[in-house]
Specification:
By secondary structure, the chain is mainly alpha-helical. The chain has one domain: GMP Synthetase, Chain A, domain 3 (2-Layer Sandwich), CATH 3.30.300.10. It contains six helices and two strands, in the order H-E-E-H-H-H-H-H. Strands 1-2 form a two-stranded antiparallel sheet. The radius of gyration is 17 Å and the shape is globular. The N and C termini lie far apart (about 55 Å).
C-alpha cells in the first residue's frame, strides 16, 4: 500500500526503483519481460539482495543482467529519493497534488503524469555497459575444464 505512506520510505521508493530498472532493461532490449526484486536490511544502505528474472526472455543470462543492475543503478534509499526527487514532486505538480493524483489512479503506467520512474533514460547506458559485464554462464549448463 503506497497511498498515505511517506514517499521516502524504502518499501515505496524501492518499488518505484525496481519498476524503473525493469523498464530500462526491457527498453534496452536485454529482455522482453523483466522482474526486479531487491531486499534491504535496517541500517544497511545498499540492498542486501538484488534478483532479476526475465522469465526466459533475456538476451543474456539473468545473472549478467543482475550484474549490470548492480553497476549501473544506485539503489541506496537516499539515491532513489534523489534520482526521482521524491521530496520535490508535489511542488513540481501544477496543482501541488502529485501524490494525491497517483493515489487516485495508480502509481505505474501513467502517461498522463510525468512519473520519473517511468522514464527510459538509462537505455543507452545499459547498452553501452553491456560489453563490460563479465560473462556469466547460463544456469544448468555443464562447463568442461581441461
Amino acid at each position: 500500500a503506497f497511498s498515505g505512506k511517506d514517499p521516502t520510505k524504502v518499501d515505496r521508493s524501492a518499488a518505484y526503483a525496481t519498476r524503473y530498472v525493469a523498464k530500462n532493461i526491457v527498453g534496452a532490449g536485454l529482455a522482453d519481460r523483466c522482474e526486479v526484486q531487491i531486499a534491504y536490511a535496517i541500517g544497511v544502505a545498499r540492498p542486501v539482495s538484488i534478483h532479476v528474472t526475465t522469465f526466459g526472455t533475456g538476451k543474456i543470462s539473468d545473472e549478467a543482467i543482475t550484474e549490470l543492475v548492480k553497476t549501473q543503478f544506485d539503489l541506496r534509499p537516499a539515491a532513489i529519493i534523489e534520482t526521482f526527487q521524491l521530496r520535490q514532486l508535489p511542488a513540481r505538480a501544477k496543482d501541488h497534488r502529485f501524490y494525491r493524483n497517483v493515489a487516485a489512479y495508480g502509481h505505474f503506467g501513467r502517461p498522463d503524469l510525468e512519473l520519473p520512474w517511468e522514464k527510459l533514460d538509462r537505455v543507452a547506458d545499459l547498452k553501452k555497459s553491456l560489453a563490460q559485464v563479465p560473462s556469466v554462464p547460463e544456469p544448468n549448463r555443464v562447463q568442461v575444464c581441461d
